[in-house]
Write a structure and sequence with these properties.
Low-confidence stretches: 1-6
Shape: globular
CATH topology: Jelly Rolls
Order of helices and strands: EEEEEEEE
CATH class: Mainly Beta
Structural class: mainly beta
Distance between the termini: 16 Å
Length: about 120
């Protein structure tokens, strides 16, 4: 069912090629109406390490400092990391992907499911 009809479960996938240093490539996940969820991030590249962070906000369009759910952490090549939460309502969570070595590229996939 569409989100507007029934907010029981929602999922999404995004991915890209990154070669930037800072601030990195950000993906916003709309978490309104969901107090639990799971984010999975896969470094699908074969050679370069990526770094990621997750920050949550009270609003979908944040104007205040967020809460650092995950500080900047490495993701080795061909590795998946996950972040799960429950009873933690936030309007949005922003996942930022940064290459560990500036200018080195890698592909990644971010999957999320909310309401699990």
């Amino acid at each position: 069912m569409p989100d507007s009809v029934c907010s029981i479960y929602k999922e999404g996938t995004t991915g890209s090629l990154t070669s930037v240093n800072s601030p990195g490539t950000a993906t916003t996940i709309d978490c309104r109406n969901f107090s639990s969820g799971l984010i999975a991030i896969r470094n699908s590249g074969a050679t370069n390490t990526l770094q990621y962070s997750i920050v949550s906000y009270a609003n979908v369009t944040p104007s205040t400092a967020g809460v650092a759910d995950v500080a900047t952490t490495d993701i080795a090549p061909n590795t998946t990391v996950t972040y799960a939460w429950s009873n933690a309502p936030r309007a949005s969570r922003i996942v930022t992907i940064i290459p560990k070595v500036g200018g080195s590229q890698s592909t990644y996939i971010i999957e999320h499911c909310l309401g699990v």
